[in-house]
């Protein structure tokens, strides 16, 4: 829909309004800053007063972050409805002096919706939509679209309907050079995107869409929308966003803060298990085995194998007497513990009790045997005492513990993969080659695909809560004692000396704060944000979960994720044509059915905002080879650059890439994408504006210019190599070139050959 820049007078008019809005924003900011500094100065008081202070502290801090985030592009739109104007912006502002009338509507408010949805076919009462563009606090452009015919004619514009709203603003955003950081899109959200962002669906919403259709953007704006609309519900439980890799999380990291939202946890699957960072790269084979549900039996068996029966009886000494831990005792105790059906660590006390009971009875039978009547001379209490003493005996307890040790998931997994014997026992169904793929040293670190296995093991092992609670209680007591010590040091004497030795006028630390208060201040947990607390707690359940590049998750990863969202309120965005991980999915139905049956909804995005039409012509041919049924999204623009290929000798490949990168002198970003070997060989090209990446690391990202090196090697590197090539081709916002020595995959044969006369 063509729109037009308006006259200087109109800009001036809007400038006055925008200036007024900024004036009000300054007022709100000053108010929050003053209140916050007052709250920070207050100390002491009842626990209730302290907790109120904590809430206000958080409230004003969040308000200030919100106001700062809204500074750029505070107001970006306006709609005219019948006799009414509505200004749309990054946050809502009310006019205090004018009956609290709305001066600026938050983009997420229901009344702002027509700004995104109105079309000439369905104007929804809107006669004109105005995009207001600003730099700093200055209005730089005002673009209007007339949605009813009469108004359009009066303004001298003809309107069409190509399904794209706010064309000038949109194209300005899309054509801008990339900075390496994703931007928010509140100013130009399109109708089909808005419908997803505000969807009321309360189970799993799947957003399928080709490359560049704004899936990531939509997912992030949906997070912001849900936090605005369901703040009460979501602020406490938090929102979790899963992305494919750390580079991607960095790339999107600023979008939510720029919308004033800071309390969202961003993580990869590999980093979701608390306390473990994915530092190891798996081979394709290992990743595939670890991602499949078949690994569950291996993990169960690995845990059972840690519940041992000794090969030979174990001779022990207790108080100079000899006792024997024989196979029968252990087998019976193990049977009793297993039949409790509790996880390993929680069943352990049952095993220990059963063994100690049997050993105490064995000793009692020897010591107390009454030769006269065959009974026992020892009383029940004597035997109970014996049991207690045995529990204190380090030799006995270490022998018992070795048979049923308390285990952590990390230990089980590390020891399993490091020991060919353990692996063969736990995974007889795997071939030797498969087991060799899983093998690694004990201190070899964990991979992303290990995180779901650790999570599964945590379930199989269980955490003995009683010990955990006792530890927490002890820690708290110690913290109070420390705080008491700190107060004593602060006053320089014990509390009872105060009256005699010190001037009563001097305000003592004790007057301001007591030990439990001080301990509370030091208790990091009490001051953590929801996202921080959630990140450290494996059993945390979130209010909403968003998964980007969801097609990449393995079956095991889904199990891990579903534990964190029992209400199953999720938004999954992805594209099954871009699945690169062999453990990933090509069917949403297959992945979701076990968890939500039919209660999931599929929505689609159809317009490509990133990749220009010229590049999509080639990408279309690659997609046809992956899945002839899929259609490529329609590109919203052309870039004017013809994608090219350059055929060189093998020995010249890297030098040619270097020369091509050197030619990229304009603003914006460049990516060199190749297989692992080429990426290593070209790593020195990396700079602020140049990235050298495998397809896996380029997932979800975009660059002004993309150079693909040796595409056939990318295809050969993985069973889903064509999908990887499709991803690589669709990363560019402007220019695409291919450098190769090997023959090109057939789907790329239409690229324009670049020669010395026709460089690129
Ligand atoms: N309505 C919009 N207004 C402005 N820019 C938009 C809009 N929608 C999408 N974009 C831009 O288009 C580009 C592609 O969006 P995004 O990365 O979200 O796509 P995607 O579907 O996740 O792609 P892929 O599947 O390839 O990772 C981004 O630069 C994004 O900011």
Strand and helix layout:
Layout: E1 4-5, H1 8-41, H2 47-69, E2 75-81, E3 84-89, E4 93-95, E5 101-106, H3 113-117, E6 126-135, E7 138-146, H4 149-155, H5 167-175, H6 191-197, E8 204-209, H7 215-229, H8 231-237, E9 239-242, H9 246-252, H10 255-258, E10 264-267, E11 278-280, H11 284-291, H12 295-304, E12 314-318, E13 321-325, H13 327-339, H14 344-367, H15 380-392, H16 394-403, H17 409-418, H18 420-426, H19 432-438, E14 446-447, H20 450-461, H21 465-491, H22 498-501, H23 509-512, H24 515-522, H25 524-527, H26 530-535, E15 544-547, H27 555-563, E16 570-574, H28 588-596, E17 600-605, E18 607-608, H29 613-626, E19 634-635, E20 644-647, H30 653-663, E21 670-673, H31 676-681, E22 690-693, H32 695-698, E23 703-709, H33 711-716, H34 721-729, E24 732-740, E25 752-753
Parallel strand pairs: 3-5, 8-16, 8-17, 9-10, 9-15, 11-14, 15-16, 18-19, 20-24, 20-25, 21-22, 21-23, 23-24
Antiparallel strand pairs: 1-7, 2-3, 2-6, 4-5, 6-7, 12-13
Helix pairs in contact: 1-2, 6-7, 7-8, 12-18, 12-20, 13-14, 14-15, 17-18, 17-20, 20-27, 21-24, 29-34
The structure holds adenosine-5'-triphosphate (ATP).
Give an overview in words.
Residues 158-162 and 489-513 have low confidence and may be disordered. Helices cover 46% and strands 16% of the residues. It is globular and about 120 Å long. It has 760 residues and is α/β, with parallel strands linked by helices. The chain is built from 34 helices and 25 strands. The chain folds into four domains: 3-157, no CATH class; 196-273 and 538-606, 3-Layer(aba) Sandwich (Rossmann fold), CATH 3.40.50; 292-435 and 449-461, no CATH class; 613-753, P-loop containing nucleotide triphosphate hydrolases (Rossmann fold, 3-Layer(aba) Sandwich). Bound molecules: adenosine-5'-triphosphate. The site of adenosine-5'-triphosphate (ATP) has 24 residues, from helix 5 and helix 7.
């Amino acid at each position: 829909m063509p729109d037009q820049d308006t006259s200087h007078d109109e800009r001036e008019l809007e400038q006055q309004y925008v200036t007024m809005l900024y004036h009000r924003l300054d007022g709100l900011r000053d108010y929050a800053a003053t209140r916050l500094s007052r709250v920070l100065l207050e100390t002491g008081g009842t626990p209730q007063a302290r907790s109120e202070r904590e809430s206000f502290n958080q409230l004003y801090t969040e308000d200030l972050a919100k106001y700062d985030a809204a500074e750029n592009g505070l107001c970006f739109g306006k709609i005219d409805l019948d006799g009414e104007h509505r200004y749309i912006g990054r946050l809502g502002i009310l006019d205090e002096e004018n009956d609290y009338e709305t001066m600026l509507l938050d983009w997420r408010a229901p009344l702002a919706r027509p700004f995104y949805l109105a079309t000439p076919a369905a104007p929804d009462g809107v006669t004109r939509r105005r995009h207001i563009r600003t730099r700093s606090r200055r209005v730089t452009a005002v673009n209007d679209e007339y949605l009813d015919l009469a108004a359009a004619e009066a303004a001298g514009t003809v309107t069409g309907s190509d399904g794209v709203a706010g064309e000038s603003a949109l194209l300005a955003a899309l054509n801008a050079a990339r900075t390496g950081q994703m931007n928010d899109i509140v100013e130009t959200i399109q109708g089909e995107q808005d419908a997803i962002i505000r969807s009321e669906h309360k189970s799993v919403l799947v957003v399928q869409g080709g490359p560049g259709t704004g899936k990531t953007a939509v997912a992030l704006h949906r997070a912001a929308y849900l936090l605005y609309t369901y703040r009460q519900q979501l602020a406490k439980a938090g929102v979790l966003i899963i992305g494919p890799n750390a580079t991607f999380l960095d790339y999107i990291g600023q979008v939510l803060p720029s919308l004033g939202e800071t309390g969202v946890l961003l993580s990869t699957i590999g980093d979701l298990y608390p306390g473990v960072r994915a530092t190891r790269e798996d081979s394709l084979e290992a990743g595939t085995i670890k991602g499949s549900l078949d690994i569950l039996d291996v993990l169960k068996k690995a845990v059972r194998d840690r519940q041992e029966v000794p090969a030979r009886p174990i001779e022990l000494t207790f108080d100079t007497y000899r006792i024997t831990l024989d196979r029968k005792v252990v087998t019976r105790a193990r049977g009793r513990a297993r039949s409790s059906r509790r996880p390993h660590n929680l069943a352990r006390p049952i095993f220990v009790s059963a063994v100690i009971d049997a050993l105490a009875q064995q000793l009692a039978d020897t010591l107390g045997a009454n030769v006269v009547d065959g009974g026992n001379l020892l009383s029940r209490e004597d035997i109970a005492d014996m049991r207690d003493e045995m529990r204190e005996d380090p030799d006995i307890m270490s022998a018992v513990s070795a048979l049923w040790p308390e285990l952590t998931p990390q230990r089980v997994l590390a020891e399993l993969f490091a020991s060919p014997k353990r692996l063969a026992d736990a995974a007889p169904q795997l071939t030797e080659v498969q087991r060799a793929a899983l093998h690694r040293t004990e201190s070899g670190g964990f991979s992303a695909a290990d995180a779901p296995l650790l999570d599964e093991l945590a379930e199989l092992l269980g955490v003995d809560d009683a010990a955990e609670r006792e530890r927490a209680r002890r820690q708290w007591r110690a913290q109070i004692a420390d705080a008491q010590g700190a107060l004593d040091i602060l006053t320089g004497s014990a509390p009872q000396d105060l009256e005699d030795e010190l001037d009563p006028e001097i305000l003592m630390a004790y007057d301001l704060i007591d030990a439990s208060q001080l301990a509370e201040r030091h208790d990091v947990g009490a001051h953590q944000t929801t996202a921080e607390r959630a990140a450290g707690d494996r059993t945390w359940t979130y209010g909403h979960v968003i998964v980007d590049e969801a097609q990449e998750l393995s079956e095991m990863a889904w199990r891990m994720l579903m534990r964190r969202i029992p209400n199953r309120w999720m938004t999954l965005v992805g594209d099954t044509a871009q699945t690169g991980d062999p453990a990933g999915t090509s069917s949403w139905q297959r992945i979701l059915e076990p968890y939500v049956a039919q209660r999931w909804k599929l929505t689609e995005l159809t317009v490509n905002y990133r990749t220009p039409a010229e590049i999509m012509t080639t990408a279309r041919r690659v997609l046809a080879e992956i899945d002839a049924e899929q259609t490529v999204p329609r590109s919203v623009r052309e870039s004017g650059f013809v994608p090219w290929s350059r055929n060189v000798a093998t020995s010249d490949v890297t030098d040619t890439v270097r020369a091509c990168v050197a030619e990229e002198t304009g603003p914006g970003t460049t990516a060199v994408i190749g297989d692992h070997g080429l990426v290593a060989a070209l790593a020195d090209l990396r700079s602020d504006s140049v990235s050298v990446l495998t397809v896996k690391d380029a997932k979800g990202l975009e660059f002004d210019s993309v150079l693909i090196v040796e595409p056939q090697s990318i295809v050969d590197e993985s069973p889903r190599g064509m999908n990887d090539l499709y991803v690589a081709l669709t990363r560019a916002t402007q220019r695409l070139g291919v450098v190769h020595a090997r023959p090109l995959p057939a789907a790329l044969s239409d690229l324009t050959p670049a020669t010395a006369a026709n460089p690129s």
